[in-house]
Amino acid sequence: MVSPILLIAVPLALAFITPLLAFVSKKLAGYVPVVAMAFNLALAAHLLPEAIAKPIIVRTAGLAPPFSIHLVAGPLGIVLSMLIALVGLLVAIYALGYIHQGPVVKYHTLYLLLLTAATGIVLTGDLFNLFVFFEILCISSYALVGYRGDRASVEAAAKYIIQGAIGSSLILVGIGFIYGLFGTLSMADIARNITTVSPMNVFISMAFLITGFGVEGAIFPLNAWLPDAHSSAPSSISAILSGIAIKMGIYAMARVLFTIYGAESIMLFVAVLGLLTLLIGEACAFSQTNIKRLLAYSSIGQVGLIVFAFGMASVIGIEAALFLIISHALAKAILFMSTGYMIERTGSMEISALQGIGRSMPLSALFFTIGAFSLVGLPPFVGFPSKFMVIRAALENADMVFSILIGVALLGTVIEGAYFFRIVQALFFKEPADNPASTEPTNPNGSKGQGAPVSALIPIGILVALIVVLGIWPQIVSEVLRPAATELLNRVEYIRSVLG
Amino acid sequence: MSFLDSYIHYIACFALVFIGLYVVLVKSNLIKVIIGISLIDTGVNLFLISVGYIHAGTAPIFSEAAQRPQQMVDPVPQALVLTAIVIGVSVLALALSIAIRLYGHYGTLDLRKIKELRW
Hints:
Number of helices of chain A: 22
Radius of gyration of chain A: 22 Å
Number of domains of chain A: 1
Largest interface: A-B, 32 and 36 residues
Strand content of chain A: under 5%
Strand content of chain B: under 5%
Mean pLDDT of chain A: 88
Order of helices and strands of chain B: HHHH
Helix content of chain B: 55-70%
Order of helices and strands of chain A: HHHEEHHHHHHHHHHHHHHHHHHH
Low-confidence stretches of chain A: 436-449
Number of strands of chain B: 0
Helix content of chain A: over 70%
Structural class of chain A: mainly alpha
Distance between the termini of chain B: 53 Å
Oligomer: heterodimer
CATH class of chain B: Mainly Alpha
Strand order of the largest sheet of chain A: 1-2
Mean pLDDT of chain B: 85
Distance between the termini of chain A: 20 Å
Number of domains of chain B: 1
């Protein structure tokens, strides 16, 4: 049997080999993330049937679970690490051509570290280990946001690092409270003993943890950093930040709420918070004229919908949330990657400058359109079954209030449709803007009017194919998501499988 | 032992955290904000240490047969704090290097002047 620990160990080792390889050849460094993520994808796919049958527990120091750090590779962890590896692989291929200036080697090292940390977050069974991986994720994304080193990106990185550092401190305070109460850091062991202490003490630690994870997850009052960070990072990084990094905040929150606390009573509050995030994100996105900021705000909106689905706290609700995580990661990766070259060719992020680009870059514009349609939730793309599942979950929920809330959530989707259709219309049906600023060539190896290179179109094309296939046959995913959702909701089973 | 005696270290470390938060929220100089983050970090680390602290305890090493585990300080929080310190230092270093870059672009560290107030 292959141990799931290799999912973390191999990319981590390769991340630090990257700078050494760069001594031999700079070109080689870019291929390291591709190799690492291809390995992870294959290994995770290999482990999936086993993990669905029974969660794989990995001991690290040779001690049985309550002691020492352990990994829990359940269906949820393996599915999410597959998603991370898939998106990471395709974005890494895209970055081979896209990232050609600046400290390229450092970019690939940090990129691989970010994905390693994300994989670690979804696999770990230890609360402090979760925090450590979370910090690796945050630190590498701070550095990658400031990758370009120009005014906007450095300012965004400064904003991000200040808010992120405070969020991390809050997580640590929460962990301190939990350790003081239970004397253990194993999530299963804490979950087993959670009823032995007074609810007030439990609540304080929960508030700290949720607030801390909420900063990275961009929940409504804590998301001021996101639009700047996502819009000024290179497009390949925006794709990963939007598709993977913020989902890790949401995952950590869900894991803590469901597995450790089993907090059913607070879930309505979480759902309302998600709804607020959704409406505010979509409303802000509607008024944007900068395409990357628009996509960033739309990420906030989607995160809100995911949190709302988690807030339903039923198996189908969580299944819908996980499905949304997958569909949003795929669609946002397409959107950011296809806008990457449009921005590079026109030299501007304003939507008005991109008018009529569907004529000069037909494939990029077509892929963008498919990604946008999937995000809005049109059939036959994957966004449709995932949003449909959220609605079904809300209507089937025993609590009538969710039927009302989903109506408000659909309003958010309508706003989303409005602004995405506006962009698609601008891309295809408007005359190209004739302002001189947009026509000057901004990069030496390509002039305006040239499409994106093949190395960029192939990964986007694969994602588009996946979106269509999963949209037509959603049961491929939903069959795997059922056990994953059960793992998150069924605490007793989780505790038993970890502690034996 | 009075209330103050047994809780004084918790009060102290949360005071540090709140001083740090105050600095981050109120000061407009980026270096001061980073100092505030460092203060929060220190407060949190002290909190973790005091969670595992036992008054007049010993190190958790069985050097003599007479030592009992009840008298030993919990080593786990100390290990956690070691990790947390390393993480804190790297965040601090990154934040300071970003501050240098920011100074290079704007010629000032005043956050009110740097912020382009986009929302």
